[in-house]
Amino acid sequence: MQPIRKSKKLDEVCYDIRGPVLEKARKMEDEGQKIIKLNIGNLAAFGFDAPDEIVQDMIRNLANSSGYTDSKGLFAPRKSVMHYTQEKKIAGVTIDDIYLGNGASELIVMAMNALLNSGDQVLVPAPDYPLWTAAVSLSGGTPVHYVCDEQADWTPDIEDIKKKITSNTKAIVVINPNNPTGALYPVEVLQQIIEVARQHNLIVFADEIYDKVLYDGNTHTSIASLADDVLFITLNGLSKNYRSCGYRSGWMVVSGEKRHAKDYIEGLNMLASMRLCANVPGQYAIQTALGGYQSINDLVAPNGRLTRQRDLAHKMLTDIPGVTCVKPKSALYMFPRLDPKMYPITDDQQFAYELLAEERVLIVQGTGFNCLTPDHFRVVFLPNVDDLTEAMSRIARFLDGYRRRIR
Question: Model's pTM, two decimal places?
Fold first, then answer.
């Protein structure tokens, strides 16, 4: 029989957050080995529960959740998202500009599918959250990676962005707060990105899923609040700010220069209708979440659990010879760098395999986030202090052995 092969559209797609190294970890777990997982921002697995009021409201509304809703979502949660955009100072948003989805991930893919033709290019940060690169490729477009500068706290390199724009460039993706680096972009950088988008008629896709996970008193500015003459597509949801990953409840907001985007918006409406609607129980969580007590503020306070774990992980990593790391201002991740002279790594996936095999710690290699060099990796700092201390100690031990081997 002829082998049944996957679509060629998947040839350029990778999602190494749940890739081959994770499969190896699962096999080790099946053999009875205990793995410390630093690979994925799945908060519930580390004891971060969704606020009880969200859970209770979903339970109370289950009897009303059996039918389809409007393809864009229920009125009340969309209205609460509209109020949230007003708090973020994004002007001119109406109920019709808001789409609810099965997490922001579904809406990212939908937004790319509605926009791209073969040969169209989208500027995507490097490193990035790999779903963006995958969504562009699956939609027939070509992802073009622009550099985020580690020496400038991982902010986008505006000159590199300008160099990579062509007549085929349709949009630019801005992930702020950033996964995987934990960067938070200053207003001046956002304004420079807007100016580039203005000059080249680009859509700005703003991934703001971590906009409340902020440390050290930092504040977040929505890029869509800074202009009204550029088309913005802003994506957000409950997964991270409200520890509700499994509820798959997100939203997409169209704002700015909408007059010249009527055909694109019609495409978004078509795709929203084709999937019928987002899951209804998750929709019922949105209004309660946005209007209720913001318990994320307790977690990111100076003595909050997330802040303490961030500080611990950062100190233990940067105490290792040859390891540097820009301290995250936001999100749940660190993206440390290994000095290539001390750690001459050419295959960072193999590096992740070896760390897993020797120390039973699961990370994601930097190239899994489209990092341009094999000298970074991403860790989450979600495990409790004891487990996090153990994980960092194991990484230190592994890197000590690595240095000894190459002498």
Answer: 0.94
